[in-house]
Amino acid sequence: MWKIIAFIIFGLCLVKAQIHLIDSRCYLAEGGSAENFLASEDVAVGSVLGTLGINGDPKTDISLSLREKDSPVTIAPLSKNIILSKPLDKEGVEGPASVYVNVICDRRMSNDPSFLIPVNIRVTDVNDNSPTWIGAPYIVNISEVTIIGTRQPMTTILVVKTS
């Protein structure tokens, strides 16, 4: 009976060791070829924008770095976290409207070639700019019996510029 239990424990240890080997190859865990994240333009500098889904442990198995040196993001040391280092701006005025970087993943203690993992960060808009109206003021005639939420074709709305 003890031999069977020992054999099962040995088998489980062997399976765990094989899983560990598979997990340290710098592949994306979900099998993709790139990572994509969304980031609001009002996210604070120093915030985590996302966590890379790369197999391996940055503390022991792999090392991660960015190919781009002037990027508005960094990788937190010994982690898979993408950190914002410069402000973002959907309009592209006070920062980039999108970020595209390449993460270099190297297996430690291996001669395997590096993996290059593209990371795309799309910046989402926040209503932080007041609208500007050209040629204002406008007068729009709408019937008082119009039901709330009704949409009218643009040709039926009379817009008159007044001085």
Summarize the structure.
The protein is of the alpha+beta class. 13% of the residues lie in helices and 31% in strands. The chain is elongated and about 90 Å long.
Written description of the protein model:
This protein is an alpha+beta fold and 163 residues long. It is built from one helix and nine strands, in the order αβββββββββ. The protein has one helix at 2-22, and strands at residues 35-40, 48-51, 62-66, 73-75, 81-84, 98-107, 115-124, 138-141, 158-161. The strands form three sheets. Strands 1-7-6-3 form a four-stranded mixed β-sheet, with no helix packed on it. A hairpin with a 7-residue loop joins strand 6 (98-107) and strand 7. Residues 17-22 have low confidence and may be disordered.
Key words describing this protein structure:
4-stranded mixed beta sheet, alpha+beta, 163 residues, 3-stranded antiparallel beta sheet, 1 helix
